[in-house]
Amino acid sequence: MDSTDSSRAFVKDVKRLVVKVGTAVVTRSDGRLALGRLGALLEQLKELNSQGFEIILVSSGAVGVGRQRLRYRKLVNSSLADLQKPQNELDGKACAAVGQSSLMALYDTLFSQLDVTSSQLLVTDSDFRDEDFRKQLYDTVQSLLDLRVIPIFNENDAVSTRKAPYEDSSGIFWDNDSLAGLLALELKADLLVLLSDVEGLYSGPPSEPNSKLIHTYIRAKHQAEITFGDKSRVGRGGMTAKVNAAYCAACAGIPVVITSIIKVLEGKRVGTLFHRDAHLWVKQVGAREMAVAARESSRRLQALQSQDRRKILLDVADALEANESLIKVENEADVAAAQEAGYAKSLISSLAKSIRILADMEEPIGQILKRTELADGLILEKTSCPLGVLLIVFESRPDALVQIASLAIRSGNGLLLKGGKEAMRSNAILHKVITSAIPDTVGEKLIGLVTSREEIPDLLKLDDVIDLVIPRGSNKLVSQIKESTKIPVLGHADGICHVYVDKSANLDVAKNIVIDAKIDYPAACNAMETLLVHKDLACNGALNELVVELQHEDCYSQSRSKVFTVGGDKGCNWPRNSTLWQVQIAHTDCIVAEDQKVAETFLCQVDSAAVFHNASTRFCDGARFGLGAEVGISTSRIHARGPVGVEGLLTTRWILRGNGHVVDGDQGVVYTHKNLALQS
Description:
alpha/beta; seven-stranded mixed beta sheet; six-stranded parallel beta sheet; elongated; Delta-1-pyrroline-5-carboxylate synthase A
């Protein structure tokens, strides 16, 4: 059963419904009553009432109507001198008192024209704390409904104990959306309809062209994907308040629809449905479906012209800059939550700039790497091509998502991403912004965002669809993934960043490099984890100087300096993301030395993905290497090693062009095997 069939099923059982009308529906943009819109709505309610439905109306708008009337009265009673003075904001409670009578007078007039009787019930938050009030309320409403009278509820803002109707959100209910949800529960409604000035809940602000209407709300799927715009132009709630009220009511067993019309009772698929069983109606996109969709989209991406792929990257960069404030809000929420949970802060670099650098690089797809004439008229070409579908699992650092996504687009690969929970909101908004810039000719499913850790085991089984797994994170994460899949894994499973200070080193240079390697960004994978020193430095006091410098930078070592003897102690593997370090005597992948012979021996014989001489390990980075970005740093020997940019996400294919050539036992073929000049 899909969501359409399900909505029709629950509509058949509806008899009593609560309809909430917001201020944006009742009034126009200038604050005046929207008589035409309100009249059309009441005609729909009258029709439902005549069909035997029990209608309970919750209406906002009193404060807005009262404010408009009081502003007019104040203008009429003001002198020219008064109007030139600064105008104070009108008291909200006074506006509510004036506006409520006007609003009800309008409802009474319009309903009377339709031969429908209405009644007014004003309530406050404190009323619902009284059990006797709640029972009497139910009995009174039941009597009214038996008489085919439509009760019209509103919060009595004029005498509410809240300090300000638009600001105080405490209590049993805090706006008319939550009041409607509360009344639906108290009055045992079968359906709650929250009317809005838009068609329903969208994935983003409805005015944005890439925003899509969500027909059935599933919290696990949509909570992290939705981007709310500004609150209502009037009133106190907006779509955020409607979603909160709808979700609470749905969890209590009352179906809810957010819509601009009431045609949902005709079984039509309008608006956004909230239902506690909605997750059972909508078929979830499984791991295989997501991977297959990414592959299909990647093939469409590869079929584009080079300039079209470049334009996608430029559009992504523009979209990131256009949504900078929104991204910042989501990222700050993650950072605040992470700090409370003890996570280290994550940084976001100049993302748009790095994407534009990628866009301006030479086209990587379809490059002819080698041309060979096998025989007369038989030409063989070795060309570059995408790997296929990548699965990237990464922890923290939401900027990693942007780097990886841009590299996937540039290299023509499909992509599945699973980020850490500590950056969930940042990842969701970045994914949304990036995919919104991907044209329909390719499809936004080119880049899929995996939101549940439970999906990872299923993805790791898809060795027939996913071509490469790249884990970015802790040693534990990398090791677990390597042990759990047949898919090739590009990653590292051990901390490898060491700085070795030779006895010939310039100590000032050594101090600067060591401090930079550890302090510049301790959370990075290219930060120093182990400092190694020549035994002579441990004897002549130079080691102590280095230790003092590090301690001065708030770094500290678990080991005491007294253990640093020739041969050293067996060191521990220290985690990144902290300023903790260790000292031991062994070999490394970075040497600080003035003796060129020693340095060259070190560079040639140390078996690391990257080996440096008199340079900080922090230079081991795709952007600093001029790759534009990186998906990670590989210590594998097969396929790619070191910072992996676009080139590491490509493989090769052979293209042979002939003219009816056949092997026929090699009897009629004269092989020339002549190297030819490369052609673009």
